[in-house]
Give the backbone structure.
Amino acid sequence: MTAQIDFDALREAAKEVMTRAYAPYSGFPVGAAGVGEQGHIVVGGNVENVSYGLGVCAEVSMVAGAVSAGVRHLSAVSVCDARGAILTPCGQCRQVLLEFGGPGLLVDSADGPRPLGELLPAAFGPEDLARGRGDR
Ligand code: THU
């Protein structure tokens, strides 16, 4: 599975979109690139706001673009900082990625790709929602 994913291409796409991130407040531009089931590459950069709490992470921006492009399942993602170094997604982004990749989504890391299930163990999911609602 990992062998079929071109992580070099994903890393390049993440670096390229990072140059278009909007991060004037933190000075920390981030780029995220993902690949959909059909091999479609989707990208996004962080988009900050003068009202700091409204800032959006690169991964969330990427997911919004993916869904708008008709891509609802990601197989792998790579995220980078301003130097092009691989970043592992923040906690919030791990939950957002889980929605569109599941625990098998391969997340690039300095030690190589890791399944999202390892980075977000015991995650809140649809089963918890159904149980809490008393659906089952
Ligand atoms: N950021 C991301 O875009 N993704 C992450 O996974 C970590 C943090 C952004 C948020 C903020 O715009 C800047 O990096 C500094 O935290």
